[in-house]
Design a protein that fits this description.
mainly beta, Methylamine Dehydrogenase, Chain H, four-stranded antiparallel β-sheet, 0% helix, 60% strand
Length: 314
Amino acid sequence: MRHTMLAWLIGGLLVPAVGFCAPLAYVANEKSGTVSVIDTATDQVVRTLRISQRPRGIAIAPDGKRLYLTDEPTAALVVVDTANGQPVASWKVGESPEGAHVSDDGKLVSVAVEDEDKVALLDTASGQILAKIAVKGENPEHAVFSPDGRWLYASAEDAEQVDVIDVASRRQVAQIPVGKRPRGIGFTPDGKRAYVACELANTVYAIDVASQKVIATIPAGNFSNGITVTPDGKRVFVSNGRDGTVMAIDTASNTMIATIPVGQRPWNMAITPDGAKLYVANGRSGTVSVIDAVQLKRMGEVSVGELPWGVAIR
């Protein structure tokens, strides 16, 4: 196969790189202001991008062509062309932006704007802010689209509910009571359930999307935080920040089936499209743990930048 040669900034040097066949994992390193790019075939960092001052929320377009990063100092969403690793736009979204998420059709991106207690909804083609939607929870961290694009579920650090936004009407229409400090949110691929980790409750809540009600509470570890759902919807992974572990939930029974040790302060995670590997950002370790998502075992650690916040995989 013929590959286009590209120039990348790696460790401050401009060097050529070829296309990669395996999925790439992008890691936002908040303190070092970098993005580490991991080749999931080798679990090696193959690129280090310096494209924002303090990247936190990270999301990738469904076609893998654009990467979206929230940048706290500039109150912006930075858009990166993944073909050359260069920023192509910087869209102002509001003070202290955190989590970002792209709709499954790639047309919309959401940003949780902490200091404004709002969720910004943007058109990915133009960067236009279509709405800034007020939510009841203070300091929203994540706003995640349902697979059909109908709903946005928002979590906030100072809340005991999930705020439900109707995307079409651009407003909050419901709130679902959960435990203290909801953080990570993930939908099953069929859109029938959502799983929410509540940090101070040490619990994961399973929500029936049709009725907008909690149908199961699943004990987790200390400071349960990030959530990732496997592509087949059969398992949900939750990171436990204080314990330094990741737990696996069987969605058929809504029970924990494994606990896997990782680095210090595991936070947000992502899984490869084939469901084989889970990548976990360990904030205090400066590493990403690689987990065999089938055998439920840790495979190794990858050193990245300082204070990795989260991972996105195309």
